[in-house]
């Protein structure tokens, strides 16, 4: 017989300290963990979860955190609120986000408002009892039994909140919905990339099946731990200076893919992150320059809070090659300059992110013809001369520059989009864990270098990050 993770004495001490309302909240939070004990009391429920190996000290501390009994965290579990928050960011969570949302809403409703909700719901649930002491959580449970409310079915409650003029609660629900859409979206993209390894097709029926068997819920509720080399942080963990990220869309995302492998999935990824995506494939040098100038001059930058540029192409350390017959190189430094404050004042003070995937062509295979561009965007060709290596470290603020290099031979020997898969996974965790962009890049490093351990040294990826960010950046509304 295995020993339970949580001593019974701790469960007893905690249960003795909680009042009736806190008991109700904790039982509601655990409702999905033991559906067969829906009518059990808190002590019986916690003991059953403990015996079934579904409760740990971390899980118990999470429950106390959710009901805001920080005093019991210190006195009984000998831990602090900040420690629990750090554990929640690093480990799978016991409680689904949907249950947490409902408890947060419950704490923000007055009894009169709950009575109004019950009255408004009579058209949909005429047999619902009009009890004076009915709590919002009990109301939710009754609606769940009638299949009127579920983790992905909150429109009815949202409409009721609109009728009682609780716009703040509607915003909470909308935020939850948006995060859920992003997670599902990224999950589908990850599945597509994985299936590309075996050339399987992902149909809508496959996605529905995955949701039906609970894979989506597993990803949404019990997120994979992220192994970070630095401490994770989120917008609510402590007071930090952060970039404003509230515009809709968050900004323009320019994707230029001169290879043709990655653009479609990248486009879906960043559109799911609420960016206005402009995707271009197989550009020659002249069209590349015209496209960059056109995007840099967009008036919508003024109303957006950020900008992202993704480039996928053959190239060398300081240039990318386009689709011209000869390997003319477009200077990476010039691409960056188009979006600096002097050239694009609408982006002054706003974060500008560049992700470069360079498939490096050996020098003996390059034709040393390069494109030089002056400050006005005029072009002239310099023939038979190598471009000197330029320092790509940003000289102005608010730039995030991430360049990944791999030998061009990987395009011939393998179609596995390793960087693409790592990038999608990393941004997926950005959404579900509220990580900053620097933390996300650390996670991207980890995933890429884990891949490098399993492959030929000549086909390993190398990542270089240079940035001049002045604030913490989260790629989600803040």
TrEMBL record:
Q: Please, which domain of life does this record's source organism belong to?
A: Eukaryota
Q: Which UniProt keywords apply?
A: Apoptosis, Repeat
- What molecular functions are annotated in GO for this chain? cysteine-type endopeptidase activity; enzyme activator activity
**What CDD domains would the database entry show?**
DED_c-FLIP_r2 (cd08340)
InterPro entries from the UniProt entry: Caspase-like_dom_sf (IPR029030), DEATH-like_dom_sf (IPR011029), DED_dom (IPR001875), Pept_C14_caspase (IPR011600), Pept_C14_p20 (IPR001309), Pept_C14A (IPR015917)
Single GO cellular component term: cytoplasm
BP-aspect Gene Ontology terms: apoptotic process; negative regulation of extrinsic apoptotic signaling pathway; proteolysis; regulation of necroptotic process
Give all residue intervals belonging to the Caspase family p20 domain: 262-358
Q: Does the keyword S-adenosyl-L-methionine apply?
A: no
Q: Which residues form the DED domain?
A: 6-78, 97-175
Instruction: Please give the coiled-coil regions recorded for this protein.
Output: none
- Which family is this protein grouped under? Belongs to the peptidase C14A family.
Entry function: Apoptosis regulator protein which may function as a crucial link between cell survival and cell death pathways in mammalian cells. Acts as an inhibitor of TNFRSF6 mediated apoptosis. A proteolytic fragment (p43) is likely retained in the death-inducing signaling complex (DISC) thereby blocking further recruitment and processing of caspase-8 at the complex. Full length and shorter isoforms have been shown either to induce apoptosis or to reduce TNFRSF-triggered apoptosis. Lacks enzymatic (caspase) activity.
Identify this protein by name: CASP8 and FADD-like apoptosis regulator
């Amino acid at each position: 017989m295995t020993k339970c993770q949580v001593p019974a004495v701790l469960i007893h001490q905690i249960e003795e300290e909680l009042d009736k309302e806190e008991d109700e909240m904790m039982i509601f939070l655990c409702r999905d963990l033991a559906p067969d004990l829906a009518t059990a009391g808190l002590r019986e429920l916690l003991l059953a979860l403990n015996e079934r190996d579904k409760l740990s000290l971390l899980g118990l501390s999470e429950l106390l955190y959710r009901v805001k009994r920080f005093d019991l965290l210190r006195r009984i579990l000998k831990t602090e609120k900040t420690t629990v928050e750090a554990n929640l960011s690093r480990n799978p969570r016991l409680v689904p986000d949907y249950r947490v949302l409902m408890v947060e809403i419950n704490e923000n409703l007055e009894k009169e408002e709950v009575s109004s909700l019950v009255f408004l719901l009579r058209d949909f649930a005429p047999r619902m009892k009009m009890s004076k002491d009915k709590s919002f959580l009990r109301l939710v449970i009754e609606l769940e039994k009638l299949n009127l409310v579920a983790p992905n079915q909150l429109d009815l409650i949202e409409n009721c909140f609109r009728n009682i003029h609780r716009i703040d609660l509607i915003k909470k629900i909308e935020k939850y919905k948006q995060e859920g859409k992003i997670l599902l979206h990224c999950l589908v993209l990850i599945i597509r990339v994985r299936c590309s390894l075996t050339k399987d097709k992902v149909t809508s029926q496959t996605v529905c099946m995955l949701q039906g068997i609970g894979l989506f819920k597993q990803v949404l509720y019990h997120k994979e731990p992220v192994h970070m080399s630095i401490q994770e942080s989120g917008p609510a963990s402590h007071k930090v200076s952060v970039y404003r990220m509230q515009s809709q869309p968050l900004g323009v995302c320019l994707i230029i893919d001169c290879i043709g492998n990655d653009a479609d999935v990248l486009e879906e990824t960043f559109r799911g992150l609420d960016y206005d995506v402009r995707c271009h494939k197989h550009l020659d040098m002249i069209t590349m320059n015209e496209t960059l100038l056109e995007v840099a001059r967009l008036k919508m930058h003024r109303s957006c809070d950020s900008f992202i540029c993704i480039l996928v192409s053959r190239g060398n350390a300081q240039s990318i090659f386009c689709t011209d017959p000869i390997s003319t190189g477009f200077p990476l430094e010039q691409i960056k300059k188009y979006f600096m404050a002097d050239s694009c004042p609408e982006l002054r003070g706003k974060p500008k992110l560049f992700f470069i995937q360079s498939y490096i062509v050996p020098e003996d295979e390059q034709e040393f013809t390069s494109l030089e561009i002056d400050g006005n965007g005029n072009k002239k060709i310099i023939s038979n001369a190598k471009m000197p290596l330029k320092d790509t470290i940003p000289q102005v603020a608010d730039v995030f520059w991430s360049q990944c290099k791999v030998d061009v031979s990987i395009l011939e020997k393998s179609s596995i989009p390793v960087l693409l898969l790592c990038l999608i996974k990393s941004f997926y965790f950005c959404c579900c864990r509220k990580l900053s962009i620097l933390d996300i890049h650390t996670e991207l490093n980890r995933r890429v270098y884990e891949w490098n351990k399993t492959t030929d040294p000549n086909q390993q990826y190398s990542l270089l990050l240079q940035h001049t960010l002045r604030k913490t950046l989260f790629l989600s509304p803040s």
